[in-house]
Design brief:
The complex is a heterodimer.
Chain A (H helix, E strand, L loop, with lengths): L7 H11 L5 H33 L4 H26 L6 H22 L10 H9 L4 H25 L4 H59 L1
Helix pairs in contact in A: 2-3, 2-4, 2-5, 3-4, 4-5, 4-6, 5-6, 5-7, 6-7
Chain B lengths: L2 H44 L3 H26 L6 H21 L16 H11 L2 H21 L13 H36 L1
Classes of the chains: A mainly alpha, B mainly alpha.
């Protein structure tokens, strides 16, 4: 019987057997569950720091108004997520994915408003991408990172053009782009390492358990025979 | 709790800490490769004479040698110990701070030098791998080094008459907050993973 024609229940039980009883889809969901608090804390940092800095030093009134609206929106969304996590209620994965898109969009939006290069806002990509990289799979992390990188590069073209461009600006842009990729890359390398460590530990534990069970069974049989 | 139970628990924690470093150090190696790439880009584009190029590229080549050694050992399943990793990570901080403080002939220094972003991957990687206290100290050292550099190498933030330029101070504070945040988040995730591993085994 091929995998495609196999009944779903049988197929999933065979998959579980192949992975020593570890249900991979559950592991993926657990990964999101474990990483969600990191995303929430990263967003609180973004909201609090962004709010304080906007109130402290805003040169443009409209820019400050829009920034505060964006930050308040993020705070409300994050409050909802925080409450759901504290109540130990399941949050659909699409909400977590959507919230992370909003994070990147919000940082890019504030960056677009400031329209300067280099901007202080750039650094806020770091905690956001770090949190994404330890929550989502490698493919999804790569998508978010590519999105953030493209958004950043598109947004800084205008201010660099306005300033006339120079070798130093080109270098700064390359360094910014490299580091923007490096933080989620390292985060995801760590995420993958930890995932394989956990699976290894579970497998070792299951093998030990199986050995203990079979030893106990054989002991019982020997006692029974004698 | 008996002495035996305490010993077992201590052994488990020690083994776990050693494994954290054994498996995790590759993250630090990768972070260092990115710093090296950023450094090479900076030196290649911003230097104008062979002498400048030689002076600029030498410390980066030194860092590459260190990373080849450490990454090679990891790939050969003979990873470095905690002390060696800590020393090499402090070396990363020293190099980044030096570049921020001195720059190249044509680049800005202190607050205007954009190489400060290289602090982020090294802080994140160190905090993913090392115990929380050590990560906290490392992050604070990085923050202090950067703050002192910005305040002392020129008068962009603090003038000679000790008056503070608050608009520039805002940039310093933003960067310091995010450096601290990156260290704290990575360290928090380190703890989350440790707990998950323990629960999975139990």
């Amino acid at each position: 019987m091929t995998q495609a024609t196999m009944p779903r229940s049988q197929q999933s039980s065979e998959d579980e057997k192949k992975n020593f009883g570890v249900n991979i889809s559950k592991v993926a969901n657990d990964d999101i569950k474990a990483g969600l608090p990191v995303i929430i804390y990263a967003r609180w940092i973004l909201v609090i720091a962004g709010f304080g800095l906007t109130l402290w030093n805003s040169s443009n009134f409209v820019e400050a108004q829009v920034s505060i609206l964006i930050l308040l929106g993020l705070a409300v969304g994050n409050f909802f997520l925080q409450v759901e996590v504290n109540r130990k209620r399941a949050i659909p994965a699409w909400i977590v994915y959507g919230a992370s898109v909003i994070d990147i969009a919000a940082i890019s939006g504030v960056l677009a408003l400031s329209n300067v290069f280099p901007s202080s806002t750039y650094v806020f990509y770091m905690p956001a991408l770090l949190a994404i990289s330890v929550t989502f799979s490698t493919v999804n992390t790569a998508k978010y990172t590519a999105g953030a990188l493209v958004a950043y590069l598109l947004l800084v073209i205008a201010p660099i053009n306005d300033l006339g461009g120079s070798n130093e600006m080109a270098t700064n842009l390359i360094v910014h782009a490299l580091i923007l990729v490096s933080v989620p890359f390292c985060g995801n390398v760590y995420w993958r390492l930890e995932r394989s460590r956990r699976v290894q530990e579970i497998q070792t534990d299951l093998v030990e358990q199986e050995l203990t069970d079979s030893f106990e069974m054989s002991s019982v049989e020997v006692n029974h025979d004698s | 709790m008996t002495a035996n139970t305490m010993n077992t628990s201590n052994n488990f924690s020690q083994r776990e800490a050693a494994e954290d470093i054994f498996f995790g150090q590759v993250v630090i190696n990768w972070a260092r490769w990115f710093v090296i790439a950023a450094g090479v880009a900076m030196v290649m584009i911003l230097t104008e004479t062979p002498n400048e190029l030689a002076v600029g590229i030498t410390p980066i080549v030194g860092l590459m040698v260190v990373n080849f050694y450490l990454h090679g050992r990891r790939l050969a399943q003979q990873p470095a110990n905690k002390n060696l990793i800590t020393i090499s990570s402090v070396l990363d901080l020293a190099l980044i701070t030096t570049v921020v403080a001195i720059g190249t002939k044509t680049s800005a220094i202190g607050l205007d030098n954009q190489f400060y972003v290289a602090y982020f991957p090294v802080i994140a990687a160190f905090s993913f791998v090392m115990p929380r206290k050590l990560s906290a100290v490392y992050t604070l050292v990085a923050m202090a080094a950067y703050a002192v550099t910005c305040f002392t190498v020129n008068e962009r933030v603090i003038s000679a008459d000790s008056s503070i330029h608050w608009d520039q101070m805002e940039s310093v504070i933003t960067r310091l907050i995010v450096m601290g945040a990156v260290g704290a988040l990575a360290s928090y995730f380190w703890r989350v993973q440790r707990d998950r591993r323990r629960i999975a085994v139990d």
